[in-house]
Design brief:
189 residues; mainly alpha; 3 domains; two-stranded antiparallel sheet; 4 strands; 34% helix; 7% strand
């Protein structure tokens, strides 16, 4: 049944569901939904149109049933306009204003060549945290409370081995007390 009578059947929820992206638009969502369910996008678009034909306009109720989502939430999520960028004239990496642009064409996205290289390094960094080589961060030591600087990809949590041992012992004592709250003896005269 592949003729026009196939589109007269009621729409059922598709077996593979995907999350709609905010401000995505209905056409893009239908294309991704069709690809996830191994259907042709034009076929799914025709099934979800009102009346069910290839030339009809989209039926939001049929799309909501096929995607397994609430009609109002789906329509609000897909048709929402994207929020404006906070400041489109700032550097993508550091947030500073770029140098004065005198060349024809669009303004640069970075304030300097260094920020552009750093942005490219972050995009291709092997770590999943997006840490640049040589990047450092400041933490507070749990043992003594002082601030210390460590490489951003380091797992060190204390400023010295002694502070690390002190914080590990404190965590172990807290865990032991949690497991056995009667372990503390009261000093009774």
């Amino acid at each position: 049944m592949t003729g026009p009578e196939a589109f007269d059947l009621p729409v059922r929820e598709l077996p593979i569901q995907i999350f709609p992206r905010p401000c995505e638009g209905a056409e893009s969502f239908i294309t991704r939904l069709a690809a996830a369910n191994f259907l042709k996008a034009a076929y799914l678009q025709a099934c979800l149109s009102e009346p069910p034909t290839e030339a009809g306009s989209l039926s939001w109720s049929r799309l909501a049933v096929a995607s397994g989502r609430d009609l109002a939430e789906l329509q609000a999520l897909l048709e929402r306009t994207p929020p404006p960028s906070p400041d489109p004239g700032t550097c993508e990496y550091c947030g500073r204003l770029p140098k004065r642009h005198t060349d024809p064409g669009p303004p640069p996205w970075w304030c300097s060549a260094r920020c552009r290289r750093r942005s490219d390094l972050l995009a291709t960094a092997p770590s999943s945290r997006g840490v640049l080589p040589g990047q450092r961060e400041t933490l507070t030591c749990p043992g003594c409370g002082t601030s210390f600087v460590r490489p951003a990809n380091s797992t060190r949590i204390a400023c010295t081995k002694r502070c690390h041992a002190r914080s590990v012992r404190a965590a172990q004592a807290e865990l032991a007390l949690y497991e056995n709250p009667n372990a503390i003896e009261d000093d009774e005269p």
